[in-house]
Amino acid sequence: MSPGPGVLILGSAGQLGRQLQLSFSGAGEILTCGRDSVDLADHEQVRRFVRNTAPDIILNAAAYTAVDRAESEPILAMAVNARAPEVLAEEAMRLGALLVHYSTDYVFDGSKAGAWEETDTPNPLSVYGASKLVGEKAITRIGGRVLIFRTSWVFGAQGNNFLHTMLRLGRERDRLNIVDDQIGAPTTTLELAHATRSIVDGVMDGRFGNAERWSGIYHMTCGGSVSWCGFAEAIFARAQSLLHGRSPVVNPIGTSEYPTPAKRPRNSVLSNAKLRDCFGIQLSRWESALDAVIDQLKTEDPNFSK
Ligand SMILES: NC(=O)c1ccc[n+]([C@@H]2O[C@H](COP(=O)([O-])OP(=O)(O)OC[C@H]3O[C@@H](n4cnc5c(N)ncnc54)[C@H](OP(=O)(O)O)[C@@H]3O)[C@@H](O)[C@H]2O)c1
Predict the structure, then answer these.
(1) Between the CA atoms of 32, 59, 159 and 192, what dihedral angle is there, to the nearest 10 degrees?
(2) Structural domain contains residue 142
(3) pLDDT (tens digit, 9 = 90+) per residue, 80-92?
(4) DSSP state of 99
(5) How many domains does the chain have?
(6) Which residues form the domain of 216?
(7) Contact 81, 131 (CB under 8 A)
């Protein structure tokens, strides 16, 4: 029996990459690739690896994601977030493979009052956002069978993310100052990976027609929106047992009171209408996605038991 399509997952040690491995189980022959096998800053190595493995589907969950550090490492951020995806797109085109790539709400400047559409003009405020935008543009220019999913405020049961930072700080401190004037949509790796699997399955079995119909950029986030401060409060309200009974007070502050090397958009809420209209996919609201992750932590991780 054929093992099915070859699925290459780059960034397999990252929070999304780990979930993609689980969600694509059974989708074909899975090949994972972490920094130990390929350094995305070494573009000839990337090219060789893709040629040698010749996958049918490339899921690129790897990225330089250290938003503040990128301000002082722009060359590396560009190499990983801009040039490496370009090489992946070139090689995917050569193979006729499907390339799935992830981008970010930080391509926008946050100045819009409503949710950002795919047709809105990006204007990144940070090196990270700029490097991701150059990556998107390079992939789009090369074309072929490509899906670029812009997402936001990614978290999950595993990985370095805001949820884990809050759980750690919540166990250490009685009071936390959290920014209240940046809003976005917290999005779980589980929701992203499930939606990706369902779209990739549809694309591979021809349900969405040919590539001209579906190739492009889509916003893919959980529903609803909240500030970082509201997100922290929601975490603490649900995670009592994970905080060993502590209930830290969350104090809302302005961005100006928490200076960071990278500027972040005030409003990074993305409209998911195109995703819904093209693929019939709608991710859960962030609150229920958060519930699912907290439940997972409570049941799976013995360190978090009451
Ligand atoms: N996290 C967010 O809030 C967020 C928001 C919007 C969009 N996104 C996008 O969503 C995607 C997934 O993000 P994530 O949160 O899962 O990121 P993550 O947890 O930081 O994982 C990124 C992965 O990329 C790998 N990587 C970085 N530089 C590399 C290099 N030079 N060579 C090989 N591998 C390298 C990292 O390896 P190491 O583990 O060895 O460092 C890590 O495994 C990315 O495209 C990101 O831009 C994320």
Answers:
(1) -140
(2) yes
(3) 999 999 999 999 9
(4) E
(5) 1
(6) 6-155+187-223+270-283
(7) yes
Residue 114 lies in a domain: yes
Quote the CA–CA distance of 192 and 284 in Å, as a whole number.
Answer: 10
CA of 120 to the centre of ligand 1 (A): 25
Q: Is the pTM of this model over 0.90?
A: yes
Question: Using one digit for the tens of pLDDT, what is the confidence trace for 177-215?
Answer: 999 999 999 999 999 999 999 999 999 999 999 999 999
The strand pair at 145-151 and 216-219 is best described as: parallel
Give the Å distance between the CA of 2 and the centre of ligand 1. 31
Q: Does any domain span residue 76? A: yes
Nearest atom in ligand 1 to the alpha carbon of residue 16 is 16
∠ at Cα 153 (67, 302), nearest 5°? 105
At 23, the amino acid letter reads: S
Question: Could you give the CA distance from residue 177 to residue 47 in angstroms, rounded to a whole number?
Answer: 45
Question: Is position 261 within any domain?
Answer: no
The tokens 């809105």 sit on which residue?
Answer: 120
- Asked if 267 and 106 count as a contact pair (C-beta separation under 8 A), the reply is no
CATH number at 33 reads 3.40.50.720
Active site residues: 128
